[in-house]
Write a structure and sequence with these properties.
It is built from seven helices and seven strands. The protein is α/β, with parallel strands linked by helices. The chain has a seven-stranded parallel sheet with strand order 3-2-1-4-5-6-7, sandwiched between helices. It is globular, with a radius of gyration of 18 Å.
């Protein structure tokens, strides 16, 4: 069994997922960084504290395979961060079925089935072999659009409302199993997903005018919250959606 706690981060090839992996590594975790595009992880190969894995989060067998690999390789899995996500933008009247299905499959279906696979392993095998009173921490990346509707992103809003609901539903079932299921709702973070908004002068100004902090968030702002939800300090926190948004929702 690995002496280090092990965290699986999906969508870890760039942006928010990469920052989350790097911050966990700095806190002494063994990081299993996964992405559908293995080329995005090449520079992580051989880095101390990192293992990289190609993972198609929309494929059930790929999800189960990664869970089996981690359990076999390290004998433990302490934290899962469901970060992988996509966004498609179009007016609702023109939004395609293909885009709708792609967003729901990536942002909602895949986190559920990954948590299902890992939760099943923990309940049936992992918990009995883990140190006494240790807990499995499942962290979902939700969104401000878990609370709001957004503009021209109906599938994304639906998926992020859904992930907030799944977070609460699983916490109700699994708290007694020493599993914490929580989520973080990032505010407006400077990543590839928000590039179109930042490059639109009208939307960019409107967003910044509402954020009390007066700036776009950085990926590291969210990574610190993930580490908190993985720590023992959050053991009595379950089913929460923690917004880290520079004050946006309080405005």
């Amino acid at each position: 069994m690995s002496a280090e706690p092990v965290v699986l981060v999906t969508g870890a090839g760039r942006g928010l997922g990469r920052a989350i992996g790097e911050v966990f590594q700095a806190h002494g975790y063994r990081v299993v960084a996964s992405d559908y595009d293995a080329t995005l992880l090449r520079d992580r190969d051989g880095v101390d504290g990192y293992t990289t894995a190609q993972l198609d989060v929309t494929d059930a067998e790929s999800i189960a395979g990664v869970a089996r690999f981690i359990a076999a390789e390290y004998g433990r899995l302490d934290v899962v961060v469901n970060n992988a996500g996509i966004i498609r933008r179009a007016p609702a009247k023109d939004f395609s079925e293909a885009d709708w299905n792609a967003v729901i499959a990536t942002n909602l279906n895949s986190p559920f089935f990954l948590m299902q696979a890992v939760g099943k392993w923990w309940i049936e095998t992992g918990k009995s072999k883990a140190p006494e009173n240790s807990r499995l921490k499942l962290v979902n990346i939700a969104s401000l659009l878990s609370f709001q509707g957004g503009i021209t992103v109906p599938a994304y809003a639906a998926s992020k409302h859904g992930i907030a609901g799944v977070t609460k539903a699983l916490s109700n079932e699994w708290a007694k199993e020493r599993i914490n299921v929580n989520a973080i709702a990032p505010g407006y973070i400077a990543t590839e997903n928000t590039k179109a908004l930042r490059e639109d002068p009208v939307r960019n100004k409107a967003i910044l005018d509402r954020i009390p902090e007066g700036r776009w968030g950085a990926a590291e702002d969210i990574a610190g919250g993930c580490v908190f939800l993985a720590s023992g300090d959050s053991d009595y926190l379950n089913g929460a959606v923690l917004n880290i948004d520079g004050g946006w929702l309080g405005r």
